[in-house]
Amino acid sequence: MPGECILLGPGPSLVPPEVTAALSAPMVGHMDPELFPILGEIVAALRRVFQTDNELTFPLSATGTGAMEALLLHLVRPGQRLAVCTAGFFADRLADIGRRIGAEVIRVEAPWGRAVDPADLERALASAGRTGVAAVAAAHVETSTGVLQPLEDLVRIAHRHDAAMLVDAVASLGGVDLPVDRWDIDACYSGSQKCLSAPPGLAPLTVHQRTRGRHTPATFYFDLEALWRYWGPARAYHHTVPVPFLYALRAALRLVLDEGLPDRVSRHWRHARGLWRGLEALGLELLVADRERSPTVTTVLIPAGVDDARVRARLLREHGIEIAGGLGDLRGRIWRIGLMGHSSQPRWVLLLLGALEAALAAEGYRAPQGAAVAQAAAALAG
Amino acid sequence: MPGECILLGPGPSLVPPEVTAALSAPMVGHMDPELFPILGEIVAALRRVFQTDNELTFPLSATGTGAMEALLLHLVRPGQRLAVCTAGFFADRLADIGRRIGAEVIRVEAPWGRAVDPADLERALASAGRTGVAAVAAAHVETSTGVLQPLEDLVRIAHRHDAAMLVDAVASLGGVDLPVDRWDIDACYSGSQKCLSAPPGLAPLTVHQRTRGRHTPATFYFDLEALWRYWGPARAYHHTVPVPFLYALRAALRLVLDEGLPDRVSRHWRHARGLWRGLEALGLELLVADRERSPTVTTVLIPAGVDDARVRARLLREHGIEIAGGLGDLRGRIWRIGLMGHSSQPRWVLLLLGALEAALAAEGYRAPQGAAVAQAAAALAG
């Protein structure tokens, strides 16, 4: 069995002991009446975390990628048009799945490391013509670049063109503010293993009433209305839900709500700023400009002459610290550091900066006289 | 948190303590090199349990219903024909999903509680005409009825008509003999939570090389070739696999292989026969004739004048024993008792018979002077 690992990659994040303990509570069947109040508590907690009154709100028995597919199947029929705001690997995946399920995909692009410009979406939708676009999709935090995409303008533009707005909140829910109802988002999904700090394997999602009842989707496993007949008051069997993961998710959601969303979001920002100050003191450059940067995933340019894989292997081998490399064109050019949920702690920021400074020194990289750890510690103190 | 429950329904089954303990081992990331040997061990173990040399063999991050959809998407394109041998709720689900993904479904039916007659499949395929049928699907054990469907004739007939054979082994893998290669099955899936006795949430599957590379399926989450690039030697990221469940599945598979498949299968038969003798001594009638009966799921007719829900509620409330009611037309007419994996133990057979006798007596049902428990105990001793 692998040893204890300090998970500071872009997910999964560290799991608090209360959540791990919940995994081994006695198993019951998926139709046991004792399970039903737990299902109800999860639904109610997820509504609070999504800041929504949407009835259809529950965790899918799949990862975030499964929820991406489920919500596209819910919103878009074969032959319909889907606009994808993309500036990274995961929004590209939205486009890929859109094509696979038979949608005509319109790409609204920005360079990787930048947010998508709402004016580009406006132009794309305006030129889409009379038949229109069924849905617009965007990633709130693009996990491959660490960009925090402003959403309110995108939603307004989508609605002006009668398109539903779908938001990927895999690396944002529970870490940055995401008021689904106030921003009028039509459909939104996340993963259990990032800012919520449960194990991977469940994908919380929510959809607005106005998107419901349009068609029977080309899927059964991901048929949200059929799933809601289990998660909602009817309690009709759909599939065998992964009960231990539901225990864990409930424990994780209790911790989120006990902390309180505003405090939790502040914590993510404060610790990210500490990390950023420390990285800058090490003389490292961040991929994303300050005003477009997400606190949940930080992307650092790898200095010239430093070997990506060797540094990550050293962090993992010597200290059991996991960070990630880049995806796609950013492979070998950036590191991705996640400070999400239970991983967003001052101690891990300081440890990572120290370990990174040592690993960079072993590569012959000379950090400026910056006292990185001290500067980070000052920022961490708020 | 619910109390300890003795799971004797048609799944999930009881989880052995070694498997529960594995759930709380330290989490690592899905791309951690320390995880890769665990993935390799799971693949190798699943090949032994499926009795196959198929390369593409791994657990899907979904339940058995998800694997049902994944394998249909793998084998059948929209517009192609799919023949479904159905005599129950779960084979009907195969037909439902087939229709949703755009297949033209041909139903080959038998009454619920009976096996499908191979001659009926032969007739259906012979009359399908020149364009043929892409795949034939059948449930090895139909969980809604407890029928064990003989497969060899179905496979032969499917292949004679150039159709691929898809087998639902959700309630059979690890409990009854299923030699995938010897029977020449093209694609097969199961669930983690039945005869393998891991928690629900993973779906082991295997597909033959000859079914591969036909098309890009209308799914990304369930794209087997893309998933194999993670599970196979390439180790390319696809989605964030549910690491704690993989630890648990590995522990469960070790227990299966330590026991040995032939001994495990014998155990399932021996304990089921004990249960059947005991139920008959209670004067109860079984839905399925002896020669078509699966040892993993037993279906009992509810005697006249006995209330289904009340008896099950009493078992659950007084003894923490879960059994299930019927699905579809069998609702209120049968009980379903599972003796799968870790739930297949003599103690639970004796306890259930005793508890059922007491619950039936409370309903005014007079069991014949049969000494049910004693008769069961004799059969359990083999």
Quick description:
By secondary structure, the first copy, chain A, is an alpha/beta fold.
Assign the CATH superfamily of the largest domain in chain A: Type I PLP-dependent aspartate aminotransferase-like (Major domain)
User: What is the multimeric organization of the chains shown?
Assistant: homodimer
Q: Which structural category do the helix and sheet elements of chain A fall into?
A: alpha/beta
Q: Which value, in Å, is the CA radius of gyration of chain A?
A: 21 Å
How does the major sheet of chain A shape up?
A: 7 strands, mixed
Give the strand order of the largest sheet of chain A, numbering strands 1, 2, ... along the chain.
Answer: 2-10-9-8-5-3-4
Distance between the termini of chain A: 38 Å
User: Care to count the β-strands of chain A?
Assistant: 14
Number of domains of chain A: 2
- CATH fold-level name of the largest domain in chain A: Aspartate Aminotransferase, domain 2
pLDDT averaged residue by residue of chain A = 96
Percent of residues in β-strands of chain A: 5-15%
CATH A-level architecture of the largest domain in chain A: 3-Layer(aba) Sandwich
General form of chain A: globular
Number of helices of chain A: 12
What does it look like?
2 copies of one chain form a homodimer. In chain A, 39% of the residues lie in helices and 14% in strands. With 382 residues, chain A is α/β, with parallel strands linked by helices. Chain A folds into 2 domains: 125 residues, Aspartate Aminotransferase, domain 1; 242 residues, Aspartate Aminotransferase, domain 2, CATH 3.40.640. In chain A, the strands form 4 sheets. Chain A has a 7-stranded mixed β-sheet, with helices on both faces. In chain A, strand 6 and strand 7 form a beta hairpin. In chain A, helix 2 crosses helix 8 and helix 11 runs antiparallel to helix 12. Chain A is globular and about 60 Å long. The first copy, chain A, starts with 5 loop residues before the first strand and ends with a helix. Chains A and B meet through helix 1, helix 3, helix 4 and helix 8 of A and helix 1, helix 3, helix 4 and helix 8 of B.
